[in-house]
Amino acid sequence: ATGPQFPPTHHLADQPAVAPARDVDTFVQEFLEELNFGQGVPLDRSTINHQYLALASTVRSYLMADWLATAARRRAHPAKMVGYLSAEYLLGRQLGNALLNSDLEGIVEEAMRQLGIDLAAVRAQEVEPGLGNGGLGRLAACFVDSLATMDVSCIGYGIRYEYGIFRQTFVEGRQVEVPDTWLALGAPWEFRNPERAVQVDFGGSVESYAGDQGRPRRRWRPDWNVLAVPYNYMVPGYHNGVANTLRLWSAEATRAFDLQIFNHGDYAEAVRAQTFAENISKVLYPEDSTPQGKELRLQQQYFFVAASIGDYLHGTLPEDFDLARLPEQIIFQLNDTHPVIGIPELMRLLLDVHGMEWDQAWAITSRCFAYTCHTLLPEALEVWPVSLVERLLPRHMEIIFEINDRFLAAVRAQFPGDDDRVRRMSIIAEGGDRGVRMAHLATVAAVRVNGVAELHSQLLRDKVLVDFAQLWPEKFTNVTNGVTPRRFLVSANPPLTSLINDAIGGGWITDLERLRELEPYAEDPVFRERFRSAKRANKDHLNSTLLAAGTAQLPADHMLDVMVKRLHEYKRQMLKLLHIVSTYEGVLSGRVPAEQVTPRTCLFGAKAAPGYATAKETIYLINRVASVINSDPKLDGRLFVAFPPNYNVTLAQRLIPAADLSEQISLAGKEASGTGNMKLALNGALTIGTDDGANVEIRKLVGDDNFFLFGMREPEVAELQSRGYHPGEVYASNPVLKSAIDLIASGHFGDRGASQALMGDLVGNDRFMALADFQAYVDAQAQVDAKFADTEAWTRSAILNVARSGYFSSDRSMRDYLDRIWGAQVH
Ligand code: 73E
In which family does this protein belong, per the annotation (predicted)? Predict the structure, then answer.
């Protein structure tokens, strides 16, 4: 048997946990105890790190009673639970969030003041757990926050990467990646629980044997395994006494590590084998939206999903649970295709471990999963080579083939003679290298398939998964993404939060649509002035952060124009750069007098996947353009380009509240949703954006007067693509564009070779049609400038952006998942 074995639990008398008293004196005492007995130092010898670890442990002990009580309550009143399966959780710092949600901020500030401890410095000591790449991982973190705040029974399952997303540094303008050693100085938020470790098997072969009444059955004979050790994190709800669990798995060698090929009873080899096992959770793959097809990546996926499903079935459910009722107890939400191998895994457990027949196992499995797709880029869809799956997970490959056979039989029955349709829909991509199309497997098994914004869900139905939508129209639905207002407004933006609270009270924090009540204040000149002063305070705060990081300061009177997101061609950082360079070139050539340039600071934040050459060249170019523009006196200080390194959640929380303009300029039809767009609008930035992803919904809600729309719409993009797109013609026919590109290619910003190569690719290929949208973008930026010149009009629009962004709370997203997908009940 490969199922995990748990030691017996001894049921002692129920003893509710008691939290320490919520007063400053008690907190000081608890903190000093943690410092002395937990860290082993007296206050006067303690470093900032000691203080951070002690403070985190103290805050954690206040949350502990909630955590235990929530778990006990859920055991006593079992409701359908959400098992959120995600390979990434981009959590951001924990201390601030724990203080906010537990309402301990005031007590802690006073306690630290009394002890003479610099709370800001202590908070800055925390290294955020960067266990994700970008939007997909941050979305998972927002969702678990909202579920805790809404008191929905949820466990988040994922991977405790020893190294999260790399730390980005710039060396002479080029991105250099540094390993993220987030665990090095201590990990005060996690609870390791080795007793609930789950063995995860790999490799080997499958054999037949005679089961009950001589029935032929199959069984997996794996040839190596690792131990998945859970680390539990609390997920506190906002001011509601709830704390859910996030369970992240770490790979360790099993005690009797029997990887035969590595271990021949030789001690040194055995130790090496241990390292081999630990490799599985060693590092987060740093590619966002481009699967690497690496064996280790598939190992990671199976590792965390097998551990999670095993943990739920054999560790969380009561021992005598009737698995026929599994779909009433749990819904596993698949965050993209990364956890989709969980589908054949549940089938395997039901068939091979629990002895069910296929039809019964499938009836259960096909009601336990729902699938969220996050992309439209064909190259982002995961396809695993059949040969690899066969080698690593032979029994799963058999099960996938069987699922496919039965599925294709149903397709043939519905569409007789339509062989082409059968080929298109098959889970197995045929041809030289056969592959498993994970999105197809997910769609076949899931109760629901959702996209992440209205346009994206529409395109899924009409294009990417059109055959499936014809077969099962009722399976397809939309849930537009959202963001947690606790982290991205209350915590990140105290000046705006208190302004809002003064105007409409605090109910909006858990009911974000109530921000609508701010609408009338857009007409109040006193409120507008206070709104501007909140923005200024946020800019000052951002400046102090940039100063500490050794990055250039932002001039106070500039428009702060931000583009923060992963570096990807489809997001079109190059389009923004072309606008910057054309503004500069206009001044250089005398076409535009410097005094007509609106004072702006264009701020970029972006990591490039380490293997993504074009993205890295773009970063290098942005940095070179920045250094020339920032020091050219001809611009009269009116245009600055800032590119602080290592954009992450912590920096996002500083930057977003300070922004005036939000750049959301992806090629229409490519950005599934975006969530930075929501955070920026919610913090009062106006958007300049294409009709893409959630921009469509933002514009509808905030109104055309408060949004700068430009560029081709998705159908026009498709039309141009099919007609044949020739960027060289656009280049030749637009003199402003041509001058900007020529200036770059001339080597004006250094490294002529690199510049020419990048511009050559742009003029020759331009896969994401930046040139086609250039003029429309420049025109829209002129409208931005005109509006910014009218301070009162701009502020009015900014306030309306805040007031009308309540829809983008992840609380609303969670309600939509509950209504449209999970059918689970709140409470
Ligand atoms: O549009 C975003 C979306 O807002 C999309 O690109 C992103 O997910 C966000 C949340 O829904 C996304 N990330 C990935 N695919 N889509 C991805 C794929 C592979 C590895 C890591 C991330």
Answer: Belongs to the glycogen phosphorylase family.
